[in-house]
Amino acid sequence: MNYSSTNYELACNECGKRYGNRPLSACPDCLAPLEIVYDLLSAKGVFTRDSIARGPASIWRYARLLPVPEGFQPDLPVGFTPLIRASRLGARIGASTLYVKNDAVCFPTLSFKDRVVAVALANAQKFGFDTVGCSSTGNLANSVAAQAARLGLKACILVPADLEPAKILNTLVYGARLIRIDGNYDHVNRLSILIADEYNWGFVNVNLRAYYAEGSKTVGYEIAEQLGWRLPDNVVVPMAGGSLIRKIRKAFQELIFLGLVKKPARPVRFFGAQATGCSPISVAVKDGTDDIIPQKPNTIARSLAIGNPADGAAAAKMILVDGGWAEDVSDVEIVSGVQELAETEGIFTETAGGVTTAVTARLYADGRIAPGETTVICITGNGLKTTDALAGCYDHLDARAIRPRLADFDAYLRSLDGEPEPELIATGER
Ligand SMILES: *Cc1c(COP(=O)(O)O)cnc(C)c1O
Ligand SMILES: [Zn+2]
User: Fold this and answer.
1) Burial letters 208-244, b for 16+ CB under 10 A, else e
2) How far, CA to CA in Å, does 387 sit from each of 166, 229, 252?
3) Residue of 35, 105, 139 with the most ligand 1 atoms within 8 Å of its CB, for mutation
4) Among 108, 229, 346, 369, which residue has the least CB neighbours within 10 Å?
5) How many whole angstroms from 157 Cα to the centroid of ligand 1?
6) How far is the CA of 10 from the centre of ligand 2 (A)?
7) Whether residue 113 has its Cβ less than 6 Å from ligand 1
8) Which protein residues have their CB within 5 A of the ion that is ligand 2?
9) Per-residue pLDDT for 80 more than 70?
């Protein structure tokens, strides 16, 4: 298997100037974000459905359209997560053709961040960094810590102090250095920009960001391939910095350009999902603008809690251009969303997935998506990382234990159904 990529390099999003390949945070001339551009034409006829099918069951089957260095030998089977038909959730919310892209089971750390980190660290190695890092709302921290350990790189990770305990533990266990910052994600991010510069470390979402962000395209490639090389009508995507939603669209456009999927009669519509407690992008979309007004986050969906999103303006713009929409939901709705997905489809997602599920229900209820359209919802993280969000939902957790007797079981079952327990009470055996 040849993992070499089509020729690629950094380009400025604003002025278009090219910068080759190196760790660079922004365009030195206009300070705009950088994006990887490819020599797509040279992939025509080479990057085909057949060549992809011969690749491994991981994101590396799409290596030709990822920024991976010459001679790169992938080590980890990241991605290629299940796309499953969600008929029971669909029936509940009035959607007849609904799919879940389930990155709650992404390898190795159970969130879609494993995709972006895999691509970023391939480049960190090539650039010669011995230490990598990130500013993170949780999942990125887990993924950088795990994959750095595997590659023998040192990791230094910065997080907001109020992160969920499971996400802190899931970082420390890999031996990473974890630093809690007294502030929100936007404070953490500003500090990490200074650190990356001062210490010459590879920060995946700072000086490696352009490479990192391309990893998100693989969600789009997989959706298309798993639908039988077809694009859906709609995609519902949770938004933090606004990068994932943009890259899924970029992936679809590349596939259309290369003739791997048919150009749909109507452009795929993108629906962004946020928590009301941190909704700068959805607020902009609802106002019909790409003017992002930063917010101070206050929500249980901590992995989405970026108040000043780096790709917010671009995300709002692309959502509006294709006729999509964005919605946001309250913390109470987020918890219901987590429960609804678990109860209907057997998938336990973290709070971000609760956001996506609840927003999807709202979009169907409001008629923004018609019942018969093909819609994919992106579940991006695992519920075991945010169990504290469900505290108080299940008093069974401290229900009394019964004796190992059938009679006790019968009586207990009746009591759960709201009937009295006559025998136990009569014999005074409690
Ligand atoms: C980071 C993250 C997102 C959103 O990512 P952006 O690309 O920053 O918009 C969505 N879901 C989960 C679980 C995440 O950790
Ligand atoms: Zn520029």
Assistant:
1) bbbbbbbbbbbbbbbbbbbeeeebbbbbbbbbbbbbb
2) 8, 36, 34
3) 139
4) 346
5) 17
6) 11
7) yes
8) 12, 14-15, 27, 29-30, 32
9) yes
418 to each of 404, 413, 421, 425, how far by Cα in Å? 21, 9, 9, 15
Q: For residues 15 and 6, which has the higher predicted lDDT (pLDDT)?
A: 15
For residues 275 and 355, is the Cβ–Cβ distance under 8 A?
Answer: yes
Q: Which residues contact 415 (CB under 8 A, 6 or more apart)?
A: 421
In this prediction the pTM is 0.94
CA angle 366, 234, 143 (to 5 degrees): 110
pLDDT tops 90 at residue 391: no
Q: HSE (CB half, 13 Å, CA atoms) of 210?
A: 25
Spatial CA neighbour of 244 closest among 170, 314, 143, 333: 314
Straight-line distance from the first to the last Cα atom of the chain, in angstroms, rounded to the nearest whole number: 67
Judge whether 178 and 157 are in contact, CB under 8 Å: yes
DSSP H helix total and E strand total for the chain: 15, 13
Distance (Å, rounded) from C-alpha 191 to C-alpha 135? 9
Comparing 58-62, 270-274, 384-388, 421-425, the range with the smallest average pLDDT is: 421-425
Confidence of residue 421 (pLDDT cuts 50, 70, 90): low
Chain centroid to CA 404: 44
Residue 274 near ligand 1, beta carbon < 6 Å: no
| Ligand that comes closest to the CA of residue 303 | 1
- Summarize pLDDT for 234-262 with one digit per residue, the tens: 999 999 999 999 999 999 999 999 999 99
Measuring from atom 5 of ligand 1, which residue has the nearest CA? 240
Residue 398 pLDDT class (50, 70, 90 cuts): low
